[in-house]
Amino acid sequence: MAIHRNITSKGGYHLKHKLKGLKKRKKQGLTRNDEDNNIQRTKKNWEIPRKLLHASIGFLVLYIYPSAEPIQTRNILLIVFVIVSIADLLRFNSVSFNNLYIKVLGFLMRESEKYGKINGVVFYLAGCIGVLSIFPKDIAAISILILSWCDTAASIVGRKYGHYTYRYSNGKTLAGTLGAITVGSITALVFWGGGLQYHKIDVENWIPDKSVLSFPTLCLITGIISGVSELIDLGGLDDNLVMPLASGSLLWIILVGLGLGGSTK
């Protein structure tokens, strides 16, 4: 009897507090679904600064492209890469440092990157350094633009409209791919249609007078390459590393390897 009375009293205690919590939420006009929606909305809002930073790199590339040499840019990024990598190592080995890091820069990180996962910036920098080290200047630059703008477009469009379209086995969607293709085509339009001709850059691997590819065809090919590069999954490697290297490789094969760009260099 004593045991039964004790269990009943404990059960009554928890039930009382649950009812109290429900009354409090009801008084505030909140339901459990409302609270869940608020949490989801907060998470989405936190993604905005990271996406803005991601996309802004593309505008920086367009700004410095005419005057900056690939080797100089790569060396600057290497220094930043080392600093960010060291900071990540410190995060993994010091809880207090990680908490400070998150407090200052957490708004630019995914939730999954805050504890026990390498910061996406490390892969982003590695991808940029890779294309600047391997490819000609114009191909390296547009590969970084594809990473900055097409990856962001695929993420936004995929999240908003992905549930209406086919979903691939890796979790990505046809909507995201179409978003990347569209923005990739526009990126080519901006870069090759105005950037190179306006600044009269010597190093270019698509020469209108010599190339067998018309400008609209080049834009479409660049868009398709953007979509394919965003979709590629290499053993779970970060998109920030895979996307610029994949897009740069495919563009190089078409423009330089197959000689379709008209360049004699």
From TrEMBL:
Gene Ontology terms: biological process: phosphatidic acid biosynthetic process
One Gene Ontology CC term in the entry: endoplasmic reticulum membrane
Transmembrane segments: 52-68, 74-94, 115-135, 141-161, 173-192, 241-260
Organism, scientific name: Gigaspora margarita
GO molecular function: ATP-dependent diacylglycerol kinase activity; nucleotidyltransferase activity
Annotated keywords: Membrane, Nucleotidyltransferase, Transferase, Transmembrane, Transmembrane helix
Protein name as catalogued: Phosphatidate cytidylyltransferase Ptp4
Domain of life: Eukaryota
Record keyword Flavoprotein present: no
